[in-house]
Amino acid sequence: MKALVCAQFGALDNLRLQSVPAPTPGPGQVVIQVNAASLNFPDVLMCQGKYQVKPPLPFTPGAEAAGVVCAVGAGVTHWQPGDAVMASTGYGALAEQCVVDATRLARVPAEMSFAQASAMVVTYGTALYALRHCANVQAGETVLVLGAAGGVGSAALQVARQMGARVIAAVSSDAKAALCRRQGADAVLVYTEPEQLKSQVSALAGESGVQVVFDPVGGDYALPAFRALVWGGRYLVVGFAAGAIPAFPLNFALLQARSVLGVYWGEVIRRDPAAYQAVLRQLCDWVVAGQIAPVISAEIGLEQAVEGLKALQARQVTGKLVVRLTDTGWPAR
């Protein structure tokens, strides 16, 4: 079978599309015939050796996939060949087949396409878990989303709106601002300079201010966003797409009773499978009802995956890039 292979950590140009043996499931595992796999910024970091998870080399990147079960291992009773599934794979999804623990699978509703399903697990799962379970966002609150046109940012925008929050979307260009307006942002700001962010946010938030910041970016805009929070505000640390990990003077937390909340969805999936399943069920229900829809900017082939990862690295992607494996023998949905 064909798979994208990382044989050494470093530049994305090191990745190679190769023929590799098809996987076999161990106890408690299943093999998925992959129809679609989405690209995520952690895939870039993992290939560079900069992510908190470092797979043994060589490995295939790709943290989420959707397709059809083609084999099950010993002890697997809830899944059988032919089931349409989505999965958090951690890595391994950018291949025609991948092996994954059965606890990481969720059923794909008949009303959803595999492309949609492959775009749900990482970014939309992160967004819902962060906003509901970590920050306990309430209807009527205002949520500031940094990097709101990216994969997890656009997910957070939609999820927060679905939860009844008012959303201020912060982005780096007018084109990205237009996307956020189409996705229903209540207000949009284009980053200018870090020292101006707090005043920009305050002008848009009005007297009620910002109760929650969703930050997958980090870097120079993190502290101004944190300082824009009202008394008792919650700051969600989601990632560091800007590259730099910010440091906060803790007096800014103390003086306004603000909370800093870490969001590590990948570890939640491992530690709390029931919460993982509940989050995906809610997301699927919303998609089927037409209340949210994954923002898929393009569908590409496996041979274009490296260029897609490079675009993510350069922060040139809006929404999600989906890799379609059209020669798997299974029909697209």
UniProtKB/TrEMBL annotation:
Annotated ranges, domain Enoyl reductase (ER): 10-323
SMART domains the record matches: PKS_ER
Pfam families, alphabetized: ADH_N, ADH_zinc_N
Parts of the chain that traverse the membrane: none
InterPro entries the UniProt entry points to: ADH-like_C, ADH-like_N, ER, GroES-like_sf, NAD(P)-bd_dom_sf, Quin_OxRdtase/zeta-crystal_CS, Zn-ADH-like_protein
PROSITE patterns membership: QOR_ZETA_CRYSTAL
A GO term, aspect molecular function: oxidoreductase activity
Protein name: NADPH:quinone oxidoreductase family protein
Organism listed in the record: Pusillimonas minor
